Amino acid sequence: MCVRRCLVGLIFCTCYLASYLTNKYVLSVLKFTYPTLFQGWQTLIGGLLLHVSWKLGWAEIHGSSRSDVSAWLPASVLFVGIIYAGSRALSKLAIPVFLTLHNVAEVILCGHQMCFRKEKTSPAKICSALFLLAAAGCLPFNDPQFDPGGYFWAVIHLFCVGAYEILQKARKPNVLSDIDQQYLNYMFSVVLLALASHPTGDLISVPDFPFLYFYRFHGSCCASGLLGFFLMLSTVKLKSLMAPGQCAAWIFFAKPLARWTWRGLAGFLRAEGLLRAGRVDSRVPAGVHSPWTSDLPVKCVRGKKAGMVSPPLLTA
Hints:
The chain is an all-alpha fold and 316 residues long. Helices cover 69% and strands 0% of the residues. The chain is built from twelve helices and no strands. Helix 5 packs across helix 7. The radius of gyration is 21 Å and the shape is globular. The protein starts with a helix and ends in a 14-residue tail after the last helix. 33% of the residues are buried.
């Protein structure tokens, strides 16, 4: 049993790490900043895979009454806010900064338990919440690449996460399982994001995306959908096999891995000339990042008349 728990924990950490890195690549390297389409794609893939898993008997989805579905609707709205605001924030912020701000959601949950539910909270948990709040508060003053828009969406994201967790804990046990909740979240998100794609302008602007027909973009989007689904499954499995404290420890362990991996990857890309802090390639028009040279015809890379096209540059 211990080996099984460790295996599930390692799978969760792997999916967590790979999911963040893949999303960051699509959002910041390829600059696919159309959150209604990107998150709509991910939730569509997740919903389809979960439905197929249910039909094949690999996952158990219970029939829910209308009252249960209606009661869960506010949580599904918050779920859409989580993924939409998170996508906007992650496209502008580095992964370590984003995860540090994301952790503040625990402060909201802790404050709600103390002030409204009058639950006894250990001094260690209070100190932990204060440290998280202090770390997030110091970020804007120590971030050399401070982006007001990124921080704005990160704040919306963390408030949605905190409110979602509060609603999730307030639900009566055995009414909706974690899989049932996620299935409803997927269905609601696909519909709402599809309806919002036109008013937000994403649906109209996406034909102008320069890498729309590049295989790296297609592969990254497919990987993001699959990794998001496997991350959800591993999270549900982790919660079912472990106590809340053990589950929180694995989640806490996964976040530094994502931070360290991103920093190492950013250092490698900077050393290779693919990443320049706070700079963009002057040979590429503003707002457009060129694709990897391996995706381009030889004449576009070597031809002097066509102009030398460099790899896309990330902001660390």
